[in-house]
Batch of 3 targets.
Target 1
Amino acid sequence: MDEELILKIRRLFELTNNNICNYCLGRKFSYILSKEWVLSELKNMNNSIDLTKLLDDSLNQLRGIAIRNKLMDEKYLNCNICDICGNILENIPKEVILKKIDEKVEFLSLEYDNFLIGSKIPKKVLEKDIKINEELDIESENIKKEINRIVGGELEQLTKKEANFENPDVVIVVDLRRVFKRMKKDVIKNKDVLKENNLDDLKVRIQINPLFIEGRYLKLIRGIPQTKWSCGKCRGRGCKYCNFTGRMYDESVENLIYKKVKIATNCYKSKFHGAGREDTDVRMLGNGRPFVLEIIEPRIRNLDLGKLNEEINQYCKGKAEFLDLNFCSKSRIVELKVSSPDTFKMYCTIVESKDKILKEDLEKLKVLNVINQGTPTRVVHRRVDLVRRKEVKDLDVYFINNHLFKMKIKTDGGLYIKELISGDNGRTTPSVSEILNTQCLCRELDVIRVGK
């Protein structure tokens, strides 16, 4: 410990009128004085200290004890009420917090495998803590981090569940703002006051993080959209036009899977993220379309996805089918959205021509290759109006009669097939209508493969 550091420590005592608890004292120099230094100093102290507490208690508390001993000055040995935290760090109501967390978990019938602790404290306490750092020209652990560590350690011991800082199932927020105010009045009278079971000043809130399930879906019938389609007139509020449902369609692929997932997870709601989408009147066949279902606030997380998959498919039999359900991370949603334009799609479509055509006329369609496609008229009101350059990778044509033929076509992802057929008044070129020199329309369309 050099002279410059000792001067900063003494200055810290001056700024706090010699009233600073061991937690705050150690916390202020946690980035400077290592755990090894603390161990060494504690071993040299005359009084006996159980060093195993380093594993069970706060390292900053022991760091503070070591600092006081190093200074060897009586005026620094005692602290009345900590000028920074008001002694809250020494008197965190652990038992009450754990009890309130347990009550909340039981009330919600909540399942979780890991957690993250957060906390709320008065703004003035945080500002004062930062101001002292600026005065001393140091960086230190935030006071909330110390609280979170103490509470998190207690919860780990009680529940045998681990803290997860990257992707926790739940975030448990302990609101100590009113407790801090109460501390100023009560800590001198009775330090155990915060351990009373009727501590109404303390609040606990649990944020349940989403659960993500990926898979692929088949849409076996026409007439249902991929996701909920809100009524265009009332925007989902409910009106005569939508029979007060707020929806244009009673069922969707999203709704079919959600009904069973809702029961299995006891969730609040869900969001459906597909790798692209097909029109309502288009079937999705073949190997299915990749999707991620984001389950909002699931109270049950431990699912048998194999069994759930069977239940879902039994429920929506004949309408849709879901394949290979697996848990995934949130990042999978971004991967789906980014990769969707880069995938290829295979379609099977029945085309009707206005004028009579001959079988040999269909050979002309083999020239379809690079397509310049403006945003279709039917979607330009909700998508950017620009020209996209797409490629037809493969095409097979089958004559049915003089006004009907079938096409199997493989294209880049994002090419609108209906407009490739109709031409969309010249917004797509070349088109089937343009090449055959007659107006052509898509009568039936199926997606038969989505691939990379």
Target 2
Amino acid sequence: MKNKKRLSLYIHIPFCAQKCRYCDFYSAAATQEEKLQYTELLCREIRSWGRMLREQYSVYTVFIGGGTPTCLSPECLERIGAAVRESFDCDALTEFTTEANPGTVTAEHLAAWQQMGINRVSLGLQSAQNRELQMLGRIHSYEEFLATYQMIRQSGNFQINIDVMAAIPEQTLESYQDTLEKIVSLNPEHISSYSLIVESGTVFGDWEENGTLKRVDEDTDRQMYEWTGKYLQQMGYHRYEISNYCRSGMECKHNCVYWIGGEYLGLGVNASSYLSGYRFRVPISVKSYRSYVDQISRFAQNGSAGLQKAIQGMDELEITDQKAQMEEFMFLGLRMMAGVSEQEFYQRFGISMMEVYGDVIKKYQKMNLICRKDTGRVALTDKGIDVSNSILSDFLLND
């Protein structure tokens, strides 16, 4: 097992009782029969990839997301968990996360999670203000969130992350502060705080196009962002990524895999993968997904020998050349407070970081936006974090 590479699994459950007004992820309502059929296809896909990858990879993290994973019955979730553990080498599995929506979690779900070995739950709250939840199109109230949180906490088996959102239309600095203060009082292990991004094709996107979306002004958005960092630090939460905070040692290992350029496999409709130097995506429609699973199953009959053919057969296949890998290493890794390692950059690419990015790094060092640490790492300063978007775009290499 020591010679095996680490792999993270993302499993997409594309079902929601109601689509939120800001969401551009693939999700839809479904009947119980459709959910059962999807579970069967998903388990087939998991088993097929397991046959091709088990010899080379050991699973490090698993993340079940959506959509709303708790739209599935506990029985369906247990089938998915069993398929993962039976198909992949999970001896090194350290973190198994599921997303959950307040008001959708039952005692039976908790029992299923324990059976699956889930040890982390990410609850999508977004706001403690019921008026703001209604604005977002959420199906739950803050009171329902509290009941769900307490039920999960009292089981004593799970680390809990709470997602919150800043810059919700018509939100005020005071209402956002009240939300975060209420969340901190619950003492979750992890808090994620993201500013709203309005995407085209969403309800909010349509409202913005026709001029009816009441956006939070930039100054208020900035105040929310700055206050979040200061407040959560005062309350004992360590900021380890631009939008993520945790108690000591409680970082989300799965998300860190994305930020450090690790390999991951996306399973389920519209899930993305980065594997063996390739990026690819599962088809978005359920009809196409069935054909995709049939194709993957055929390649899997040859075990690990079918892996390359399976990847090459993807419709949306992107080869990540060294230039793209260096760019991603920098602008994903710099999102983390620890920054990026000059030694690891050299080990990966055979060239020093300063030879490739020296001019950019020195430019922002002079502006006190980037620092080179004695540990051999390059990181954004506190001031640099505040203007990270403009800095990170400078790490795109010209052709």
Target 3
Amino acid sequence: MKSVLSNLTFQVLVAITLGVLVGHFAPGFAPYAEVISKSFINMISMLIAPIIFLTIVLGIAHMGDMKKVGRVGGKAILYFEVVTTMAILIGLVVANVLQPGVGVNVHASVADAEKLSTYTKQAGEINWLEFVAHIIPKNIFDAFSKGEILQILFFAILFGYGLNKMGEKGQSLIGTFDKISKVLFHIMKVVMRVAPIGAFGGMAFSVGKFGLSTLLPMAQLMGSVYLTCFLFIFVVLLGICRYYQFSLWQYLKYIRQEILIVLGTSSSESVLPSMMKKMEDIGCDKSVVGLVIPTGYSFNLDGTAIYLSMAVIFLAQAFHVPLTFEKQLGIMAVLMITSKGAAGVTGSGFIVLASTLTALRIMPVEYIAILLGVDRFMSEARAITNMIGNGIATIVIAKSEKEFDEEKYKRAICPATIEKLEENI
């Protein structure tokens, strides 16, 4: 009994349940719950930049062949584009088959319209050429302070290259970085101890602020999004896992703790450091993990891609906007670009949806106001799918580069080993 109570997975499950109950029966607690949730995510965020930087630098410094860095990066980008496109396609197909927007009450309140102005303003400010140019940091210290993942990734690759070229002279610095990296992961273990509190706060805030009653009018859309994410994981990602000869089910059991934390916080960023550590522990080379996971948080958002494609079709059905097959192909093309601009944080998918409708010009952007009440509850499906997809991408790229340790994998997926890992965290 004691071992069950001390198990982090069990603690997070209990915390999520309590969060739903507190949010439903004491909605006035929502502002305090938001502070609790944000505090936990901030604790995680403070570790993300240094962990990404050190993981990439150490991986490249030990890599030897710099051509391999470009090869791994190229494979990752190609994989991301193919799989994200499949996510968009499956979202469009399911939305057309289930037609979740047919018969929906499209009345949007004035309050919703006021909230919407914030998102449309941010969406209007998105410039996709600037997004690409923004990858190169003007000031690296500013990038670290703001947590700009792609800018940190870019600088870390260059820093790792420079350290790699130093040869023996750089070994002392590599040793120092390795020690700092271990210190940060020890800090992460401490932070993960309070993950149940963060999950409780996130769920209590969502339910308390938006209320379970807001789910009923949009139940069909929510069900369709969750169903599509389920199909994507257990059809598309399962097929990828089988092709590369590893078990999807064992992988999901291995990261079950991270799945529950994301469910509670609605943010895949809340588990980024622990996912990087777990991907190394499951057998992926440090250099592959350092390149694929951070890049995937901007370019491999499978769940977000599914949500965006289904939301556009849902709105078209709800507001009786006819979409021909040719127009839907155009939507798919635009989403292949706009879906890359969403970060792994809560609410970003909604901003990108607004920017997508702005680019498509097939309906007024104001139509998305009807989604405001349920967007937070669909954020969990997006974030969990994004996280699962990024972990699988890391294993796939590691296996394709023959940088995957099968012995570490077998030890990691052993149930007894998983329990031991969770106890250590």
